[in-house]
Design a protein that fits this description.
The chain contains ten helices and no strands. By secondary structure, the chain is mainly α. The protein is elongated and about 60 Å long.
């Protein structure tokens, strides 16, 4: 959404009400997300964001004191939206007879579907944020910790039901979130021909069954020599 110079020169009335301010911030964040994803954090300027948002350069500073604060708020807002999406899927889309592993599968599927629909977010979380210094790393760690805590609740519930093996629930949750994050990152360039649902089934199967073959699996004619 590139605006011409005439549009950018039009004065922008400063938002007064809380609702107007929130709407303006949301518009600026949306524009910033687009530009950050296309150009990367370091190559993006406030002028680029203003151009994408269709506002003057100076008006950005009415709402954000720097590009850094804007990026921080954008990451927080996107992470909150993803957590809400996952929570709704894990709770609202699972019937009582779906099995004890169903909430985890629903959460993984919802995560991958969310990322597939919003690849700009994947770039922000898995490309830019890791290369932006200590402040960003700490912020990203806090975001990741919130996801780990959500997954840990599912792990503990499954352990109590005897579905998951006993073990440190936090470590298991870290392993799960790391796997899903790396799968989402890979799907930026290739989806292996899999839908999010198929990828979720594979991930949960791997988590529940591990890498080892089950007894008898893989037997072939070549294995039946006397």
């Amino acid at each position: 959404m590139v605006r011409d110079s005439a549009e950018l020169s039009r004065p922008l009335r400063r938002a007064v009400s809380d609702a107007d301010k929130a709407a303006r911030r949301a518009d600026i964040c949306s524009a910033a997300k687009t530009v950050f994803a296309e150009q990367g954090y370091h190559a993006t300027t406030i002028a680029d964001i203003a151009r994408e948002a269709g506002v003057s350069y100076g008006s950005i500073y009415w709402y954000y004191e720097s590009k850094e604060t804007l990026f921080h708020e954008l990451m927080s807002a996107e992470a909150a939206a993803l957590r809400e999406h996952i929570a709704a899927a894990a709770v609202g889309e699972v019937s009582l007879d779906s099995g004890p592993a169903a909430p985890l599968k629903a959460a993984v599927r919802a995560t991958l579907e969310f990322y597939d629909a919003d690849r700009a977010l994947v770039k922000l979380l898995f490309r830019d944020a890791f290369a932006l210094g200590t402040a960003f790393e700490l912020h990203l760690y806090s975001i990741n910790t919130s996801f780990v805590e959500d997954v840990e609740r599912l792990v503990v519930m499954a352990q109590r039901q005897g579905v998951f093996a006993d073990g440190p629930s936090r470590m298991l949750a870290f392993a799960i979130t790391a796997l899903i994050g790396q799968m989402a990152h890979r799907r930026l360039t290739t989806d292996d021909g899999w839908t999010a649902a198929v990828a979720a089934d594979f991930a949960v199967g791997l988590l529940l069954n591990g890498l080892l073959s089950r007894p008898g699996a893989g037997d072939s004619a070549g294995d039946s020599e006397p």
